[in-house]
Amino acid sequence: MTLLANGQLPEAAQKFQAAIDIEPNNYQALYRQATVYLAMGRPDAAVDDLTKVINLKPDFISAVNQRGGVYLKQCKLEKAREDYKTVHKHEKNSESKQKIDLVTNIETWLEYANDYFENNDYSNAVSYLSKAIEHCQWAPHLYKKRAVCYEENGEIQKAITDFRAVTKLTSDSREIFLKVSKLHYLLGDAGSALIQIRECLKLDPDDKECFVFFKKVKKLDKLREQIDKFIEKKKWMECLEKTVEVFKAEKENERIQLDTMRYSCKCNMKAGHTAEAIRDCSEVLKNLNADDVEVLVDRAEAYILDENYEAAVNDYKRAHELDENNNSISEGLQKAQRLLKQSKKKDYYKILGLKRNAKKSDVMKAYRKLARKWHPDNFQNEEEKKKAEKMFIDIAAAKEVLTDPEKKAQFDNGQDPLDPESQQGSHAHPFHQGFHFHQGGFGGFDFGDGGSFGGFKFTFG
């Protein structure tokens, strides 16, 4: 028994089988081998050995009791009752009587469960099936029926757990592996679906139904891998192309659509497609998981690009509540708060009529157009000229900040590089120290394109 005590079950089984081969009627060896089979999760083999023991030695009550216990766990209730009655005749104690009563109770619970099941009352059916399964742990048909109840109630993960129990209790589980794979797929979990459908094909590589579904799952899994790869390489448009492929292929699977929107949310945001990013992120947060931190952050960044700083602050605050120790989220929240504060002051993008994802070429184009429009010499009315002078300075300042990578980065992070208050101790920029406007020319600016206005230069290219 040393091998058994040490958990060396296959070796112990071989040892007992060798003894039985020499002495087939050795009931003790058969009984011990049955014990090993039970430990190995082979109840049918254990019952065969226990039956041989009982035939050889009918008064070996421990074997009868052991077999009754196996029958009970397999939900073979009539056989369990017969064995427990035999035990009770010999022992006449309360424990054996309780086991007989338990069998009767389980029969009653299963009658109730079946009635509720037939009447589509799956919640009550689950309640009575669970009471029975507590004692009948090796009864695949009970797990299967409860799994169906869970599925009907929309508790898919619980259904998967019970169906997987069935696969462990039956030898040919192709139908169940296919079912479990489809449930994982329904939840959008292509990886787990792939694992389960491969188990079906291990049992029979020629199973047509499993192979067809395998190809379907494999296609989605490959698309997901490609999307992950493009995100890793920051190829946002390629990422979006693959998400479109998933959307087209999985029109009927809402969960896969929503899971894919987690990707399109991020890739649209990174590509500067703010409206699409906000739309997709919002769909995920509304219909899949309102507390998805990554999606909250992605939507916050999309809101920033869309200059909706208040909404960005709200999303970052929620993300921070969910993940307080994430430094990146803390920094994002601070940035959004600075941008919100900044938006109530001077906004260089708005001055030039640009979005925050504008390129340098966009800045220069807008600058040229607005500088010509608002040149003070274009205005004769004194009030209009003063307004133009202010606009002209703001336009020049916007161009300076947004074409200088360092200053632009400061501004994009919520700090105005030309504002003394933002620079904490740094010297104020000349633009904010005031200009002197002389008659016959504005501040002496030279545009470098044929128009001369003194010593200062505004280049247009």
From TrEMBL:
It comes from the Eukaryota. It is found in: Endoplasmic reticulum lumen. One of its GO terms (cellular component) is endoplasmic reticulum lumen. Residues 347-415 form the J domain. TPR repeats lie at residues 27-60, 293-326. This is J domain-containing protein. One of its GO terms (biological process) is protein folding in endoplasmic reticulum. Its main location: endoplasmic reticulum. Pfam families: DnaJ (PF00226), TPR_16 (PF13432), TPR_19 (PF14559), TPR_8 (PF13181).
